[in-house]
Amino acid sequence: MLEAGKDLGEVWWWNNYPGARVDTCWPFYDFSDPDLWQDWTWEERFPGRDELCRYFEHVEKKWDVKKDIKFDHFVTKARFDPTHDKWTVYSDKGYTAKAQYLLLCTGFAAKPFVPKLTGLETFGGISYHTAHWPKEGLDVRGKKVGVIGTGASGVQTIQEIAPHVQQLSVFQRTANHTLPMRQEAYTDQTKQQQQEKPKKDYPAILKLAKTTFAGWDYDQLTKTAAEDTPEERRALWESNWTLGGFRPWLNNYKDLLTNPEVNRVMYDFWRDKVRERLVGLDPELIENLAPLEPQDPFGSKRPSLEQNYYELYHQPNDCKSQEESNCRSDADRSEDGIRGGNRSRYSRLGHRLRHSHRQSDSDRHPRHQRRESQ
User: Are 174 and 295 in contact (CB under 8 A)?
Assistant: First the structure.
């Protein structure tokens, strides 16, 4: 095996940005080999990056896989010889391997994407892609930080650094239909209570997971929303919301993604749940985070799981009146670090704690939320 990373973990070796964690709870992120899970217990229901790397070291002790891996070898090309039915694979270190079969474990999004933002090359500050976060870490305490994008890595990074930075600017294209993670952290006592007892059911649980759409111990319902009363639908959605994870998305009616009326009612349920946590904020900020009208159908984009994402927009504040202005047409270096572009219309909110929240992208006219000291 040729591996570009320098140790086990693959995506988790690379992903060491703040707050990086898997959005799959145990036991569904475990290998199914009983030799691996019988003497392993997790510290959290949704493990973070460091714990995942410790798990892979546990796998190494059991399976002795490192002997068959060449680390720090990036595959640059592969050629097939039809005469001999063989592949020849080349790495950037000059290593050549020949094999009858070639399995490319590159993932669907293995190549980091950096948008072409005008002025990025002359930006005067430090910039990092979450996929290339420095292994030694990055001290953001007391810094002015901008986060572009609110997918899973964006939401996780924001949750981790927001309490520590001097000022945080979030650039968002559309609202993320985030779902409650319902994270649990375990002590030595609760580890045994929460995980050891269910292990007797692991074989049956993991067998069931192989039969479901997304590999969980639950699946979409076999009935449509019309087969339930409004009260029954509400009860299902409330139950899934309380359980958390991807249940509100994947343990739903079978016509959720095919019936626009059902999808809209589910969106309204999600929107209202989020807005309950945004009470007291500026109306425009609330609209940006949980729009009254959906920007896209619920569940048509993969939701992210969050722990306290919306609470971060609440800080003790003395909110000023909204101030709007036109920004420069090019994103460039400025006194504040980045000045938004595309002649976008921005709104400004004043808050004491110097937390700012912005919304932008390169192909839509964004709205801008900002919190800063008075």
Answer: yes
The radius of gyration of the chain from alpha carbons, rounded to an integer in Å, stands at: 23
What are the backbone dihedrals phi and psi of residue 242, each rounded to the nearest 5 degrees, phi first?
A: -65, -40
The label of the residue with tokens 């072409």 reads 116
Closest to 371 (Cα-Cα) out of 306, 282, 290: 282
Give the pLDDT confidence score for residue 189 in this predicted structure: 82
pLDDT above 70 as % of the chain: 84
pLDDT, mean of residues 112-139: 88
One DSSP character per residue, 129-195 reads: -GGG--TT----TT-EEEEE--SHHHHHHHHHHTTT-SEEEEE-SS----EE----B--HHHHIIII
What ranges do the domains of the chain cover? 120-176+313-372
Distance of alpha carbon 23 from alpha carbon 246, whole angstroms: 9
The span from the CA of 359 to the CA of 369, in Å, is 6
State the burial class of residue 293 (Cβ atoms within 10 Å of its Cβ: 0-12, 13-18, 19+). Answer: exposed
